[in-house]
Design a protein that fits this description.
Layout (H helix, E strand, L loop, with lengths): L6 H12 L8 E9 L4 E10 L2 E13 L2 E7 L6 H6 L7 E3 H10 L1
Parallel strand pairs: 4-5
Antiparallel strand pairs: 1-2, 2-3, 3-4
Length: 106
């Protein structure tokens, strides 16, 4: 990771921008959650849909060992390209599945 590029700051900006365009269907609102201490960055959705109250994770990434681990990305086009465009190196972004598999094998 280039020391001049701050991955947590990029993640914060990206999740905040991702919540600016709110869904127009139903009464669901998206919220950015940024925890610099733990390195977790999320977008959660809450609100009413046809079945009742819902609360769900739309996006979850974390910074660990100079990598960005994408645990979940349920945005239609994903946020990975936005992270790369903002300065995170593509080789520093890995899926949670691949990360957890490599940890389990070591």
């Amino acid at each position: 990771m280039d020391s001049s590029i701050n991955y947590p700051d990029i993640l914060k900006k990206t999740v905040q921008e991702a919540t600016r365009d709110q869904p127009s269907l139903q009464q669901i609102k998206l919220y950015p959650i940024c925890d610099f201490d733990s390195g977790h960055f999320l977008v959660v959705g809450t609100g009413l849909d046809k079945q009742g109250w819902i609360d769900f994770i739309v996006f979850h990434a974390r910074v660990l060992d100079r990598q960005v681990i994408i645990e979940m990305d349920n945005f239609e086009d994903g946020l990975t390209s936005s992270l790369i465009d903002a300065g995170i190196r593509a080789e520093d972004i890995i899926s949670g599945f691949n990360y957890h598999r490599s940890v389990a094998m070591s």
